[in-house]
Amino acid sequence: EQMAKELLDPLALIKDEVSEISNRLRSMVVAEVPELTLAAGYFFRAGAEGKRTCPTVLLLMASSISMDMADPIFGSKNEIRERYMRLAEITELIHVTSLIHDDVLDDANTRRGMDSLNCVMGKKLAVLAGDFLLSKAFSTAAVSLDNAEVILLLATAVNNLVTGEFMQMRITPIQRCSMDYYLQKSYYKTAALISNSCKAVSVLAGQTAEVATLAYQYGKHLGIAYQLIDDILDFTGTSASLGKGSLSDIHQGIVTAPILFAMEEYPQLRVIVEQGFDDPSNVDAALAYLARSKGIERTRLLAAEHAKLAADAIDALPESKDGSVLISRQALKDLTEKLIKRTK
Ligand code: FPP
Ligand code: MG
Ligand code: MG
Question: Fewer CB near the last or first residue (10 Å), C or N of the chain?
Fold first, then answer.
């Protein structure tokens, strides 16, 4: 029965690889100075690793587009599979770096249901720990991937993360009211890392440009859907369930899709959004409009549209009869479903 379950559960199939990645990450983030090792390893300790969505998606993507029939996820590991795993590690390193630096920028005290690194060790050490992790990401890429195009995709992802964070920080009142600006920022901030890494998997696999684009599209729409749900949960979730603050966006003056949709229903809300949320009564007023509007509902629908586009990208991959390829593709599609239903 255990075996039948594993055959049906694609996550069980890559479970060993994901834990190998976790172990390797722990040994990778050792620095010369013990205190820096402690800081850099903070989010890689057992129990502090989060959902490990990046490695999961990338390994499933690898299995979904692998042309090498000797490389099913069941099979013995070979060299190319090792390289996908290195890429998954690098992506996770970049992801964790972005979280550590984000918490410094946001002055956040909690992350993953724990104290943030800046809270525990101070923001200076958090900045340096992030820089250190980023250097590890790119040194691993140089040594283990040995592919300039792939390294360029990863650098693009970091560039986009910085751009997205910057767009959010320096925003004009007009931009704050724009859905296009919001979606572009969300792509950079949240989707660019996974989309470029999915594309990188395809490049490592020696796939066609068409497949690379589909892999990229999957990551892009998955990431945007994820961010839209995140923005809903910031309004509807509790701090305890999210492992981070709730209503934190609006208190930081960050306007997200639910408010932008509410603004379409209640044009009066625009004046408030343009003024910003330094005045707490503006927060209350915006929340009151949101509660009366279909903002949350419409955001959920938009997330579902992006989840569907992600699934469509998988369906557009070249036909395959390989069992493990099909299971992995189904798992990537299931992930889009799970994502829009998540509550934390
Ligand atoms: C979280 O957003 C933000 C990110 C995941 C991206 C942060 C990007 C940077 C700090 C740029 C530098 C990145 C690198 C890799 C050097 P949020 O604050 O809306 O979400 P939260 O609720 O998870 O804090
Ligand atoms: Mg933050
Ligand atoms: Mg932030």
Answer: N
Give residue for tokens 């009564």. 281
Kindly give the number of the ligand 1 atom that is closest to the alpha carbon of 95.
Answer: 15
Three-class secondary structure of residue 9 per DSSP? coil
Which of 90, 132, 161, 242 has the most ligand 1 atoms within 8 A of CB, as the residue to mutate?
Answer: 161
Ligand 1 centroid, distance to 97 Cα (angstroms): 8
Instruction: Write down the pLDDT at residue 244.
Output: 59
The pocket around ligand 1, CB under 6 angstroms, is made up of 94, 97-99, 101-102, 105-106, 108, 134, 158, 161-162, 165, 189, 244
Q: Counting ligands in written order, which one lies closest to the CA of residue 101?
A: 1
pLDDT in tens, 203-216: 999 999 999 999 99
Consecutive H or E run containing 173: helix 173-176
Residue 246's pLDDT band (cuts 50, 70, 90): confident
Q: Among 132-141, 238-247, 265-274, 305-314, where is mean pLDDT lowest?
A: 238-247
Pairwise CA distance, residues 21 & 15, whole Å: 10
Asked whether 281 and 319 are in contact (CB, 8 A), the reply is no
DSSP assignment letter at 114 = E
Which residue would you say has higher pLDDT here, 221 or 242?
221
Where is pLDDT greater, at 70 or 125?
125
d(CA 331, CA 132): 33
What torsion do the CA atoms of 56, 60, 61, 67 make, to the nearest 10 degrees? 150
* Shortest-distance atom of ligand 1 to CA 94: 15
